[in-house]
Amino acid sequence: MKKLSARRRHPLAAVVVLLLALAATGGLYAAFAPAGTAKADETAQSLAIEEGKKLYSVGCASCHGTGGQGTSDGPSLVGVGSAAVDFQVGTGRMPAQQPGAQVPKKKVIYTQAEIDQLAAYVASLGAGAITPTEGQYNPAGADAAKGGELFRTNCAQCHNFTGEGGALTYGKYAPSLEGVSPKHLYEAMQTGPQNMPSFPDTTMPEQEKKDIIAYVQAVNGEKADNPGGLSLGGLGPVSEGLFAWVFGLGALIAVAIWVAAHTAKAKKS
After folding, report:
1. How do strand 173-174 and strand 166-167 relate by DSSP bridges?
2. Would you say 158 is a known binding-site residue?
3. Residue 10 known to bind ligand
């Protein structure tokens, strides 16, 4: 008994007990963990990457390089992540028809399954923004009023107050947000496509992105009723004030000229 008590008081006794506990825990996990499910997920991911690489070689490598390293005709895709691919290909911007100041939205040529495979391959080239889940971009229950404040602070300078879009410099433009899906709105904020700055979760948390999506849907969705009448491009008080000055002041000038002309005639007669 004295020898056993002495061993218990040994400085390394606690370390030995801890190692035995870790070994036992690891053994139990290895015995009961769903290894089959994890292995199946890894196999499915590997297949997606393999199929995505085939699609990439046919539709993307000529501009972005065989390994995504980029060329003079297209930027590097290393580290852009799956979200950027899902946005660019899912909106038809990629593959691009021709180089230009800005790549426009056009008809999508890939199925969603093929887009997922392309995204998986590009994501394997380097860590980047991950394609969001529905729970991340679904604006249900979001605060559209708060989203309006965020939109006017961060987005209206280019997309204008209601997301109608607007011209930029050197042939570039901010596209209209009408009809853009919540998923693609979220991915655009994540990745900052083309001339747009990116707003990762460290800069703009997930809830704020949802609020902005709710606002865009509220002002740029179904436009059946406009209580303000003619929207004048949705540019707000600037265009409305300009309309009043041009047409209102123009009408006053016309009336003044008419009165002066008739007054002069009356004096002559």
Report:
1. antiparallel
2. yes
3. no
SS3 254: helix
Digit-coded pLDDT (tens) for 128-182? 999 999 999 999 999 999 999 999 999 999 998 888 888 888 889 999 998 999 9
Q: Is 63 annotated as a binding residue?
A: yes
Distance from C-alpha of 60 to C-alpha of 221, rounded to nearest angstrom = 33
pLDDT in tens, 31-70: 555 655 557 778 888 899 999 999 999 999 999 999 999 9
- Distance (Å, whole) CA 189 – CA 156: 14
Does 159 carry a binding-site annotation? yes
Ramachandran assignment for 215, one of left (phi > 0), alpha (psi -120 to 50 degrees), beta (any other): alpha
DSSP per residue, 44-75: HHHHHHHHHHHHHHHHTHHHH-TTS--BTTB-
- Taken in order of first residue, the domains within the chain and their CATH numbers are 36-125 (1.10.760.10), 134-220 (1.10.760.10)
